[in-house]
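Support reply, case 0932

Customer input (verbatim):
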Amino acid sequence: MKNISLSLAVALSIVMAVIGIGAGYWLTPQYSLSMYDKNTMNLGQADKWVDLRYLDGMIAHHRGAILLAEKASISQRTEIRNLCKEILKNEPVAIAELYQWKKEWYGDQRKVRDPEVANLGSSDSKLELRFLNALIAHHENGVRMTREIRLKSSRSEVLDNADAVEQFLKGGLGMLREWRKEWYNVIDTNPYL
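Our regenerated output:
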């Protein structure tokens, strides 16, 4: 009798875990998304919540830049340290504006979860290369997000934000790729963004 009860308890636990995971995916579509998984990052359908999903995604995007900059601020290269200072100075301002829009438009005051960012490792001769690779991928992802929201939103503030963000990111991509080529002789394999 005791073996049957143990088997039943294990089976019920497994069933409940599967139901819980399924409910998590159904209730929160972003549950399974990773910021750097380019195959799954999307803003969903063009519904009344698409702008909120963009705001949340762009807040996470800006937070990702801050987290990378914090890790790379130990760089030996002046250019990288200065870039990190600029990121740490400017990104919180952009985040504050996005949170303000969330509050005004949706009454949503929830904080956006920080994204996972690349582990840049120790301060060795390749720290800057790892940072450049991570920030280039980060910028490319941001450009994809701005292009997607332009197809799905009609709110002028969101569209203006997407235009400004994409212009900034594309300019930054050029600089980052040039540094990577100059310092490490790495040729860009994705120049179309």
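We compared this against your earlier run and they match. Two observations from our side: Residues 29-40 have pLDDT under 50 and may be disordered. The chain is about 70% helix and 0% strand. Please reopen the case if you see a mismatch on your end.
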